[in-house]
Amino acid sequence: MARNPRQHKYILVYPDHYVLDGQSIFTSIPITKALEAANPGTILLLNAGTYGPFGFKPSFGGEQYYVRTLQSTKDQPVVLRGLGNVRIESGQFGGCVSVLGFEAYVNFENITFFGPKDAAACILIDQLYNDSGIWKFVKSAFNFYNCHIDGGYDHITRTGTNSKWGVLTWGLSTFRWLGGSVKNIKYEHAFYIHTSFDPQGVIAIKNVLGRHLGRTFIQQTDRAIDSPNIFFSDLTDPSIWLPEGQNKWIVENNDVEDTGLNFWGGYALTFTGRHNGEVNILGNRCITGFNPELTQSIMENPDYAGYIAQGKPLYTGNLTILGLGQDHDKIPGFVQLPHKKANIVDNEFLIAPGFGDRENTQVACIDDLNFVGITLVKELIFL
Questions:
Q1: What digits encode the pLDDT tens for the residues 32-86?
Q2: Which domain holds residue 52?
Q3: How far is CA 204 from the centre of its chain?
Q4: According to DSSP H, which parts of the chain are helical?
Q5: How many angstroms separate the Cα of 4 from the Cα of each of 7, 24, 75?
Q6: Most CB within 10 Å of its CB: which of 26, 38, 191, 198?
Q7: Residue after which a domain boundary falls, among 63, 85, 107
């Protein structure tokens, strides 16, 4: 696509068109087209309404929703700013936003992402690739300010959208979700973050309201064998093993209630396996089991029946940090590495009395642990 030579500080975007150089251009993919016309620092002003999905992908082929080229820099990101009630729905595209091996610096502000349908990820970011046996990631930054994900599933009535993940990623460099909420996910995690090994990278999730999630609020994992491009039949090939995670994590001042509503595996905050960066869990509130309507719904849910012990719903615990990983015992010659450092400070973790079959908080295999100022109902264990 030929670039417009003019610089655009603002581009007005509507659900059925965008405005460029004073001209209204009607299209079914206005966000995609406006992004393609953007310059570093351009602000897309999204007017109130419902929009279809879009994505970022460097190669041609595939859906028309993808942006193929984007002018953005670390110091001059492109901004998508919602004005009023801006809602992005996934439709038949899969998720609301997909990023596949694309160098971009993008800020999202005041936007609600709904769905997705058919158990896809609402926000998918896959920046991981293998170059002649060496794992690399595409340098990028995606920041979300006061944004919301609504999975569209009611866990009390057990009706609604078959949503699976809120945010699903591989190979992140910089990622921030500050403010807003993630709620009503039917099956799995609000944030499912895999294998981020940029030593200068930061993953920050702060001031987020998490409500009614099928599994966890955050599931971080740095498995040696976990990638969309790795198959378990290749476990004996060291060339495909992924490197240890190295990004700095900041999880701060989040307010999370009722995780594990569809599947009890994991904890509200779950950090597992081979992370060589610093993990900071600061001032969060995680509680579960205090909503009688949800409890009754779980007890009556036939899909959950296998996870009910002694007539009591399990839900999940609230925090686990383990220097362990899934299926590593199946890899000949593989040595498990511990987490490098964790700061767990001034959190409140509560489980209703009589609920669950696991500890509230569990930490193990951490080289440097700072654990202070925690409020607990139910037990804490160190392994």
A1: 999 999 999 999 999 999 999 999 988 755 578 899 889 999 999 999 999 999 9
A2: 1-85
A3: 11
A4: 30-36, 292-300
A5: 8, 15, 22
A6: 191
A7: 85
Is the same domain home to 242 and 362?
yes
Instruction: Report how many domains make up the chain.
Output: 2
Q: In the beta sheet, which residues pair with residue 245? A: 275
Q: Do the domain assignments include residue 32?
A: yes
User: Under a CB-based contact definition with an 8 Å cutoff, are residues 59 and 20 in contact?
Assistant: no
Q: Is the dihedral of CA 54, 57, 58, 59 positive or negative?
A: negative
- Asked whether residue 127 falls in the same domain as residue 72, the answer is no
* Same structural domain, 120 and 80: no
Which of 140, 137, 85 is CA-nearest to residue 107? 140
d(CA 255, CA 270): 15
The pLDDT of residue 307: 56
If one compares 99 and 359, the residue with the highest pLDDT of the two is: 99
| Cβ-Cβ contacts under 8 Å for 58 (sequence gap 6 or more) | 68, 69, 100, 101, 102, 103
In this prediction, residue 18 has a pLDDT band, given cuts at 50, 70 and 90, of very high
* Cis bond before residue 116 (omega within 30° of 0): yes
pLDDT tens-place string over residues 124-180: 999 988 787 788 899 999 999 999 999 999 999 999 988 899 999 999 999 999 999
Against a cut of 0.85, is the pTM above it?
Answer: yes
If asked whether residues 186 and 49 sit together in one domain, one would say: no
